[in-house]
Amino acid sequence: xxxxxxxxxxxxxxxxxxxxxxxxxxxxxxxxxxxxxxxxxxxxxxxxxxxxxxxxxxxxxxxxxxxxxxxxxxxxxxxxxxxxxxxxxxxxxxxxxxxxxxxxxxxxxxxxxxxxxxxxxxxxxxxxxxxxxxxxxxxxxxxxxxxxxxxxxxxxxxxxxxxxxxxxxxxxxxxxx
Amino acid sequence: xxxxxxxxxxxxxxxxxxxxxxxxxxxxxxxxxxxxxxxxxxxxxxxxxxxxxxxxxxxxxxxxxxxxxxxxxxxxxxxxxxxxxxxxxxxxxxxxxxxxxxxxxxxxxxxxxxxxxxxxxxxxxxxxxxxxxxxxxxxxxxxxxxxxxxxxxxxxxxxxxxxxxxxxxxxxxxxxxxxxxxxxxxxxxxxxxxxxxxxxxxxxxxxxxxxxxxxxxxxxxxxxxxxxxxxxxxxxxxxxxxxxxxxxxxxxxxxxxxxxxxxxxxxxxxxxxxxxxxxxxxxxxxxxxxxxxxxxxxxxxxxxxxxxxxxxxxxxxxxxxxxxxxxxxxxxxxxxxxxxxxxxxxxxxxxxxxxxxxxxxxxxxxxxxxxxxxxxxxxxxxxxxxxxxxxxxxxxxxxxxxxxxxxxxxxxxxxxxxxxxxxxxxxxxxxxxxxxxxxxxxxxxxxxxxxxxxxxxxxxxxxxxxxxxxxxxxxxxxxxxxxxxxxxxxxxxxxxxxxxxxxxxxxxxxxxxxxxxxxxxxxxxxxxxxxxxxxxxxxxxxxxxxxxxxxxxxxxxxxxxxxxxxxxxxxxxxxxxxxxxxxxxxxxxxxxxxxxxxxxxxxxxxxxxxxxxxxxxxxxxxxxxxxxxxxxxxxxxxxxx
Lengths: 177, 641
Hints:
The structure holds two protein chains of two kinds. Chain A is an alpha/beta fold.
């Protein structure tokens, strides 16, 4: 048999293998270009508490989970319950980032469902969120002690996400200088 | 009750599909006619029960039976009846049922019309039915095992559904998917013909003549389906575009390109009894690309506007079946193809050579688009990076490839089979060449457009084809030959391509667009048309609220026309959708999409002027017409015998 008669078959097998490999990939999960970079500079008012503003300097010195949320976001409500559980965690600080929301509604919401956050930045116009590359809620950034963004979780934090992905990373960052 | 009946109908259809495939195999061993009759009955049974299942599904949607999870996911109490019917194929499960249904419809058509079109020899008829049975059985099994549309929600049924995505709520949903599938799935018959030829080692003129209508008709439907999809995207997405090089659009274009090559190769097989290996390869490639398209859409492997939810087990099943069918076909091809090899009997400068170049160019276009479409997966699977390949790549590689094709179309009808003298051809066509170049360069100026190279090339090519085709008819008449239906089918299809090429290049060259903010009674000028925002009304639709903006459009010294653009908010999801307003005539579209309202009370508005854009779709419908004429010619051919 001449080799050129086999060419269509070989070409097909290559494409087939590629597609088979492609099935286990997730094209919708776009990695954040900010990973490995220092957090963007920002200065935002806070929703509750004594401190009036929050800036990137407040991220220094501890591992931070920055959770982007809004009262109008259905998935955030699902995530909230688990965040309440995580709030008791001593290893890291959980910061909130209230995205394009109404202040009164947000306060009311926290009163009703409980407040897991240490401090909450308020971005009514969504301009700071653009610097962070936020394109949906909920999203959560994992930031290390030197305020470098190390991971971005797209979608709600569930028990599974926490146990499999976030917790090992948090523990690793905790042991870094 | 209805969902259970539908579910049961799918099981019965699956058994019939197995019978359609297994009975003839028994027949070959036992040499008994009865077995073949059984498989014919199976075709009818499968067809009836798949239709029954589809009617059951449509009934579930009409009744809004939210206890069926597929209905619950794609319907809503407020969804208008028309879209509830269309929603039956608006999601994965239903569109797969439609796939199976259309395959069985084609199979039945093949069986029913075998006396009206050039008949295939009995053994070939039986073979084709067997292969189609095998394909059908796999797909119905896939439907039944992984994507049952009739699955109930237990224990309690939700009160309301998740609703159909607003983009799909358009009359386009009723026509576009069935038309597209009629094309895609129909290529299964050409594929079955090829498999039979490979097994029996027999590919003669009779084979090619019998196969032709079963390739040309699906091709016509696919052309029309692609064009309908393009028209739908144009009216619905609000970006004024008519082709986005989205992976799923590419998936429908790929089999179209290779089927075009297939039709031409098949003609050479029929008229000259050569090109056999090439014809067989193209038959397999065309169906492989159709299946690949189904896989790409259904597995969610690529990011696209068409993929909504995906499930890896479904992708794996489809891929395995694709590997079995197409891998098997290519293996068969590599072992058997030596039996079809012939030394070429034509001179270098002959119609055969022109048609061979046509095939090669079309197949190269297939490969480049395929690479562009799969490139994101290639990079991602090598862990390099995540990218998407867009318009710049495709336009750069695709357009230059189409140019030689358009040039060939002006030559090929005038080149003789076997051998052609170059001097005579030059004598014949030089006037066409000069005329089309001159008109191509001057027409835009005469019509008041500025010079643009792309438009000049497009108009020249279109005229080149039109003149060549006209001359072809004239010469047939002059030599007192009858211009038969088969000639007409070719003429209409070639003119369709010319019309389309003209539309594409002129629209690309001379479209104008402006994005502006407008307040009431403000006027904006685009391409000599003055657009004035006159009125804003709130209206209430069946399942949406909307804001309708009325614009007055006026060109100097002409009476003003009203243009309505809408911004809809669908109540079930609070999802908004812009319904552009379009003022269309043969020479231009005025297209206006309402954006978002601005804090100061104004609106952001996108206005487009698109000359000759309708010609693109008109060309597509001419291709469908060409397909029908070819079918008629096949029927006539049978009548004459």
